[in-house]
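Z., the sequence and structure:
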Amino acid sequence: MTETLTRREANKARTREAVIAALRDLVVERPVDEITVDQLAEAAGISRRTFFNYYGSIGAVLVEVFSAHAEAMVGQIDQAGLVADPIAALREFVTHGHTDPDFLGWMAALNCHGTAGDAALAVERTVWTELGTWLDGRLHEMLSAGTDPLYVTTLATSVMHAFSAAEKAWLADRADPTRLSASDLAAFPEHLDRALGYLAAGWRPEHDG
């Protein structure tokens, strides 16, 4: 029984990996809102029905991808520092180069086709909303039990807004949207650190301290 369950879990993992790899290739070729479930299923070598056994939508695949990357990054943040000063702990993490290049590769690929249409923006909003909910839950787990839930939710929301703002600035500054360069990899943490710095300062201009 254990061997059967293990084989089944391995098959499930391979199917998910195939879907994610196929989507990564497709988003480089065309805007995400132009990708259909049928196209993704075919590229992954599975049926449409099998796809829906795993995911409710293409946006759900992206949520899984970004949540996995975010979980890996959050797991590296110093928990004691997070409790004492969450923004300082996040900035310490960001400035020490822990941003996953594959994570940035996904963001670059999803935005390499120019201005997003309404459908693409709807997918992006779904992904960011789901990630915000995920971050809220993880911060509730990581911070002390007596922490005000409103504090945690406000922190999660603010961090997500800072990340979104950093992403927009990063995308606008990239010289070649079709290629992820070493300078692009270095620039994103700088943008995110600046955004978190504004958050820590209450959005006061830097010269005001």
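Residues 2-29 form the longest helix (28 residues). The mean pLDDT is 88.

Let me know what you think.
H.
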